[in-house]
TrEMBL record:
PANTHER family assigned to the protein according to its UniProt record, in alphabetical order: 3'-5' EXONUCLEASE ERI1-RELATED, CELL DEATH-RELATED NUCLEASE 4
InterPro entries membership: 3-5_Exoribonuclease, ERI-1_3'hExo-like, Ribonucl_H, RNaseH-like_sf, RNaseH_sf
Residues annotated as domain Exonuclease: 30-144
Protein name, entry field: Exonuclease domain-containing protein
High-level lineage: Eukaryota, Metazoa, Ecdysozoa, Nematoda, Chromadorea
Length: 300
């Protein structure tokens, strides 16, 4: 059934990213091991079954997946052993987006949290020494659209969003393509109910957290790497780009960094090589232990 769209975009690309992990260790240098995407045609409020992307990625730092990683992601050791590098898969994904005309102001990424793009994809780019692609700098966070409280654990967000719209979800572990399809159904419900779906999170080069620093008690807290609520603060200090919540998105600012008011291609965080230059040296000087994820990405 054709309806009046409640979003300025023609297509919504639901994206899921899976990474390596170690149980209850948020200082683990996570590498992307799977990228999946499905597309919702906004005008017809339909999932475009002819437009689906799913590729596994071979990890380099920790090539052997942990038991926790296999359990939480559904990605097997065989999957990644036969996969290609992130550079190749990322290029393939970019070509897929362009060939299906899913780039520019006609389309927007949709996520179930801020983690997949801000933390996982940005960190992966840092690991291999490439700039964060401009296409990943803005997205629609469904969690922000549907809930007021803080985000849950990323692996739980899809299930909780499905529950909010009475969407049946298998009790077993979900694969990345299955999560994409479930989130696509959430999007369909939101469109049918006239929710205004537009960009609500952008990666910016300005960091108030980095400028202000953390309380001394948190800087010296050696248990931060085991604390789900505290660990994101360290990522905000270390990663070059920071999530910025957008309340009233103007389509004229599509592709613009809110930190320096420059288009993403000329944003001050990508005009330098390497892109990351806001090293929080004070953070590293005041720690006796090594921040592994930062060290692995050559941030210090």
């Amino acid at each position: 059934m054709i309806h009046q769209p409640s979003t300025p975009f023609q297509n919504l690309v639901i994206l899921k990213v899976k990474t390596t992990s170690q149980e209850k260790n948020y200082d683990f240098p996570s590498e992307v091991i799977q990228i999946s995407a499905v597309v919702v045609d906004v005008k017809n409020n339909a999932i475009r079954e002819n437009m689906m992307f799913n590729e596994y990625v071979m990890p380099v730092i920790n090539s052997k997946l942990t038991e926790n990683c296999v359990k939480t992601t559904g990605v097997t050791q065989e999957n990644v052993n036969n996969a290609r590098s992130f550079r190749i898969v990322n290029e393939k994904f970019s070509n897929w987006l362009e060939s299906n005309q899913l780039v520019g102001v006609k389309s927007a990424f949709v996520m179930d949290s801020r983690v997949d793009i801000w933390q996982r994809l940005q960190y992966q780019c840092a690991l291999i020494g490439v700039r964060m692609p401009a296409r990943f700098r803005q997205w629609i966070n469904l969690w922000t659209v549907c809930f007021i409280e803080a985000e849950s654990m990323p692996e739980d967000n899809t299930r909780l969003l499905a529950d909010a719209f009475w969407i049946d979800v298998p009790e077993r572990r979900l694969t990345a393509p299955e999560e994409c399809l479930i989130l696509a159904k959430v999007v369909q419900n939101l469109l049918a109910q006239k929710f205004h779906l537009t960009i609500n999170q952008v990666l910016t080069c300005f960091s108030g957290v980095r400028a202000q620093g953390l309380p001394i008690a948190e800087v010296y807290n050696k248990d931060w790497k085991y604390d789900f609520k505290l660990s994101p603060k360290f990522y905000e200090l270390v990663l070059p780009l920071i999530p910025w919540n957008v309340t009233n998105f103007d389509l004229n600012t599509y592709g613009m960094c809110p930190g320096c008011n420059m288009v993403f291609s000329y944003c001050r965080m990508v005009r330098f090589e390497p892109a990351h230059f806001q090293y929080p040296a004070w953070l590293y000087r005041n720690r006796e232990d090594i921040i592994l994820f930062a060290k692995q990405a050559h941030f210090y």
